[in-house]
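Suppose you are handed a protein chain with no further information: no name, no annotation, nothing but its sequence. What can you learn? This example shows the usual starting point.
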Amino acid sequence: MPRDYIRVKDGYRLIMDLFSPYRRRIYAYNESIKEFGYYLKPIHIVVKKATNLKYIYFGRYWYRLVKMDDGRVKWIYIGREKPDPHLPDPPLNPFEGLRIMVVDDDVIVDEYVYRILNTFPKNR
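A reasonable first move is to predict its three-dimensional structure. Written in structure tokens, the prediction is:
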């Protein structure tokens, strides 16, 4: 069954504003697990320069941070599941599993994502 897509004019800033409190909680969580050498990335962004499209995937992307001899930090992707059961559980992220397309400042989402975004409170 084909999905219908909806273009939300200037929706990128709105979505990122809605996501902001959850992003702050995830960054605080990362600060608390830093000593274990892990990092939880809440967003994965893919940019297609030829078409001026940006794909944003909300989820849990776990990385191990390894300090190199020259002082740089190497990010090693290790998956979408919590890598160590001794780590505290990350904060809830209601955006997890959503994906959006961004064209300039507009957002293109399928009807399902549009309905989910409409459930967020308007007065944060």
